[in-house]
Design goal:
Number of strands: 2
Oligomer: single chain
Helix content: 55-70%
Shape: globular
C-alpha cells in the first residue's frame, strides 16, 4: 500500500473512531437481564459487535439520513445529484480500506457496505428511468421541484415571479390533462390543438404518484412563505389554490380514468413490473445465486410438497384427498367476536414457553415483557387482512362497521389454526425478538437490512417447528400448511408478475384456486404486494430466506457443530445481512473483497425437495 493510500485509510479510520489495530473482541455469549431487575448482568457483558467497521457503517447510515432530510423530494434533480455523488464518494472511500488487515466481521461489513453503495446507484438509475418514462404526463415536475430546491438553498423569493410561475404551472397541468384525456379515446374528432397523448396504466400509476408527491412539495413550499411574507401571500394565494386544486384533480383523473377502478370500487391493481434484468440485479445484491427461473422451480417443488402434506392432513380429518374441503372446515374454527386478543395472547405465551423449554434460543425477560397488542382498523384490513407483528402485534378481526360478508371473510381468514401457525412468526422467536436483538447487538447492520434475513428468519421458525412436531392435530397441520403454501405461491406470482407473464387478476385467482384464500383476502394480498410499499423481491424472500436458514441449520446443527441455542443466538445477535454472509460468519469462511454469490442452498432446483 502506498503512503498516500495508507494516509487516506488512517484519516478515515480516525475520523470515524475505528480501532483498526488492536481492536477488542466481544467477550462472550449473549447476556440476558439480571433476574433481579431490568439492568443486564454487567459482570460479564461484552461489546455488542466484533467489527471494527461498526462506527463507519453507522456513520454512513447517519450521513445518508441527514442527506435525505436535506434533499427530501425524490423527484428533485438536486436530490438525485446529491445522492449519486454521496454513494459514489462513499464507494471510493470504502475501496481504500485495508481489507486484508480487517477482522472476519469487519470484512463482512466492508463487502456489504460496498454492495449496498453499488446497489443504491443502480436504484437511482432505475428511478431516473421511471421519471423519464412519465415525464410527458408530468411536464411541470421540474418547475415545482425548482421552487422547492430554491427554498432549501435559502434563496429569496420574488412574489410576482412566484405568482407567474404558479399560473403557468396551473395552465400546464390543465393542458396535460386534456391531452391525456383525448388519448383515452383515439380517433374521436376534436378541435385543433395539441395531439392526444396515449399512455399505459403502469406509466399513469407512476405519474399519479409523482403528482401526489409534487402536491405535497408545493404545499410545504407555500406554507414556508404564506403568512410570514405579506407580499408573497397577496400575490400567490389565488394562483397557489388553483395549482393545488389542479394537482388534486389531475391525480384523481389519472387514478380513476387511466389506471382505472375495479368492480369492487377500488383502484385497479396495476403495480410496477420491473422485468427480468432488474430481478437478476436485485438477486445479485441479495447474494442469491439463482436465476428467476430456478427460483420458480424451487417454489413449484415446495408447492408440490405442501400439496402432498395437505392431502395427508385432509385424510386424517376424514376428508380423503379433498384438502380444500378440509381447509374449509378449518376456516370455520374461529373464536367468537371479541375473543381474538385472548387467543393471540395464549398462542404467544405457548410459543415462548416452547422455545425456552426446549433450549432453542435465549429469550431476554424484557423482550417477553414489552410486546403489545393492538387491533387493526377496518381501513387497514383492506390491505392487510391478517395480523402483523413486531414489538406491537396488530390483529385483524371483524369490526361492527364491516358488511356481513366482510365480517364472515375476516373470521374465516383469521381462524384459530391459521393464527396458531404464525403468532410465533410475528412475536417470539420471530419478528419481535429480531427487532429486540438487532437494536442491541450489531445495530450498525441495520444498514444491510434484507427481507431474506428478516422474513426468512420468521418463516424458518415455521419450518423448524413443523419438523419438531409443534403441530398438535391435523387441523394445526392444515393451518401451518396453508401459510407455507402461501409463501411458495408468493414466489410464483411475484416473479411472474415482474417478468410480465402473470397479471394481477391472475395472481388473485391463483391464490384463491391453488392456496385456498378468500377472494377478498387474496385481492388484498396482491394489492399489498404490488402497491409500491414493498420492493420486488420482498414476497419471495419469506420462503427463500427460510430455506437458506434451514439449510444452514442442517449444515451446522445437524452434525453437532453447534447446538440449537448456539446457532440461533449467533444469528440473532449477528445483525441483519444476506443469509449467505451469515453462513460465512458462522463457518468462518475466508472472504475476499470481490465475494460473489456461490452458496447453492437449495441444491438443484429440478431435483426433489432439498433435505427431505
Amino acid at each position: 500500500m502506498s503512503r498516500q493510500r495508507l494516509a487516506t485509510v488512517l484519516t478515515l479510520a480516525l475520523a470515524c473512531g475505528l480501532p483498526f489495530i488492536g481492536h477488542l473482541r466481544a467477550s462472550g455469549p449473549l447476556q440476558t437481564q439480571a433476574s433481579a431487575g431490568y439492568a443486564p448482568d454487567l459482570s460479564s457483558l461484552g461489546r455488542s459487535t466484533d467489527s471494527e467497521l461498526a462506527d463507519l457503517v453507522a456513520r454512513f447510515s447517519a450521513d445518508r439520513q441527514a442527506l435525505l432530510r436535506r434533499y427530501d423530494v425524490e423527484l428533485s434533480p438536486d436530490h438525485l445529484r446529491a445522492l449519486r455523488r454521496f454513494y459514489a464518494d462513499w464507494r471510493s472511500a470504502v475501496a481504500t480500506l485495508p481489507f486484508e488487515r480487517l477482522s472476519a466481521d469487519a470484512r463482512i461489513d466492508a463487502i456489504l457496505l460496498d454492495r449496498r453503495l453499488g446497489w443504491e446507484l443502480q436504484l437511482l438509475d432505475r428511478r431516473e428511468q421511471w421519471i423519464e418514462e412519465a415525464r410527458q404526463l408530468v411536464p411541470f415536475s421540474a418547475t415545482i421541484s425548482a421552487l422547492h430546491d430554491a427554498r432549501r438553498r435559502l434563496e429569496p423569493v420574488d412574489p410576482v415571479k412566484a405568482a407567474e410561475t404558479l399560473t403557468t404551472v396551473a395552465k400546464e397541468i390543465e393542458r396535460t390533462r386534456q391531452v391525456v384525456e383525448a388519448g383515452l379515446a383515439p380517433g374521436t374528432p376534436r378541435a385543433a390543438g395539441p395531439a392526444p397523448l396515449e399512455t399505459s396504466p403502469v406509466t399513469a400509476l407512476r405519474a399519479a404518484g409523482q403528482v401526489g408527491e409534487l402536491r405535497t412539495t408545493l404545499a410545504a413550499w407555500n406554507r414556508h412563505f404564506s403568512g410570514y411574507d405579506p407580499e408573497f401571500t397577496w400575490w400567490t394565494a389565488a394562483p397557489f389554490k388553483r395549482v393545488d386544486e389542479a394537482l388534486k384533480a389531475y391525480e384523481e383523473f389519472l387514478r380513476k380514468k387511466v389506471v382505472g377502478v375495479g368492480a369492487d370500487g377500488e383502484e385497479r391493481i396495476v403495480g410496477t413490473p420491473i422485468g427480468r434484468d432488474a430481478l437478476v440485479a436485485d438477486l445479485g445484491f441479495e447474494v442469491i445465486p439463482y436465476t428467476p427461473e430456478e427460483l420458480l422451480a424451487i417454489a413449484e417443488r415446495e408447492f408440490a410438497w405442501c400439496e402432498t402434506e395437505l392431502r395427508k392432513a385432509a385424510r386424517d380429518m376424514g376428508f380423503g384427498d379433498d384438502w380444500k374441503a378440509a381447509l374449509e372446515k378449518v376456516k370455520t374454527l374461529h373464536v367468537e367476536p371479541g375473543r381474538q386478543p385472548d387467543l393471540i395472547r395464549d398462542l404467544a405465551r405457548e410459543a415462548e414457553a416452547y422455545v425456552e423449554q426446549h433450549g432453542l434460543i435465549t429469550v431476554p425477560p424484557l423482550a417477553k415483557e414489552i410486546w403489545r397488542l393492538e387491533m387493526m382498523s377496518p381501513e387497514r384490513q383492506r390491505v392487510n387482512p391478517f395480523f402483523l407483528g413486531g414489538e406491537v402485534i396488530t390483529v385483524s378481526f371483524p369490526t361492527d362497521t364491516m358488511s356481513h360478508e366482510d365480517k364472515l371473510m375476516s373470521l374465516r381468514g383469521n381462524n384459530v389454526h391459521f393464527a396458531r401457525a404464525t403468532v410465533f412468526h410475528e412475536l417470539i422467536p420471530g419478528h419481535h425478538l429480531q427487532g429486540y436483538m438487532t437494536a442491541r447487538f450489531n445495530a450498525h447492520r441495520r444498514a444491510f437490512s434484507t427481507p431474506f434475513w428478516g422474513e426468512g428468519w420468521a418463516l424458518y421458525w415455521e419450518m423448524l417447528l413443523w419438523d419438531r412436531g409443534f403441530q398438535r392435530s391435523p387441523e394445526d397441520r392444515m393451518g401451518m400448511l396453508f401459510w407455507r403454501t402461501h409463501r411458495a405461491a408468493r414466489i410464483i406470482f411475484s416473479l411472474r408478475f415482474h417478468m410480465g407473464t402473470m397479471t394481477p387478476q391472475e395472481c388473485i385467482d391463483f391464490l384463491v384456486d391453488r392456496v385456498g384464500h378468500e377472494r377478498a383476502n387474496a385481492t388484498a394480498e396482491v394489492r399489498r404486494s404490488f402497491n409500491g410499499s414493498y420492493p420486488p423481491l420482498y414476497q419471495l424472500a419469506y420462503m427463500i430466506g427460510g430455506l437458506q436458514f434451514r439449510a444452514l441449520h442442517r449444515e451446522l446443527v445437524g452434525p453437532g457443530r453447534m447446538s440449537d441455542r448456539e446457532f440461533h443466538d449467533a444469528i440473532i445477535t449477528g445483525g441483519s445481512m444476506p443469509v449467505e454472509m451469515v453462513r460465512a460468519r458462522l463457518t468462518k469462511q475466508a472472504l475476499t473483497r470481490d465475494h460473489r454469490p456461490s452458496w447453492r442452498f437449495a441444491g438443484n432446483p429440478t431435483a426433489g425437495p432439498a433435505g427431505r
